[in-house]
Amino acid sequence: MTEAAPYDQRLATVAAWDVPLVRGAAATMSAMADRLRSWRARLEGVGRSLASERTWAGPSARSAGRVLDEVAAAAWAVDAAMADSAAAFTRLADEASAAQASAVRSYSLPAGRLGAVAAPESASAAREEALERAAAAGAAAEAAGTALAVPAGPLAAPLAPGAADAGTALGAPAGARPPAEVAAWWAALPAAVQLALLHRAPAVLGGLDGLPAWARDRANRGLLRQALADPRLSPAASATAAAVAARLREEEALGRVVQLHLLDLEEDLVALALGDLDSAEAVAVLVPGIANSPADDLDGLTGNARDVGTAARAAAPGLTVATMVWLGYGTPHTVPSALSRTAAWRGGAALAKALAGLADARGAVGRPLPRTTVLAHSYGTVLVDEAADVRGRLAADAVVLLGSPGMEDDAAGLEVPEVYDVASAADLVTYAAWFGISTRAEAFGSTPLPRDPGTGHSDHYERGSATLAGVGEVVGAPWTPP
Question: In a designed cystine with 446, which of 160, 205, 225, 421 is the match (CB 3.0 to 4.6 A)?
Answer without folding.
Answer: 421
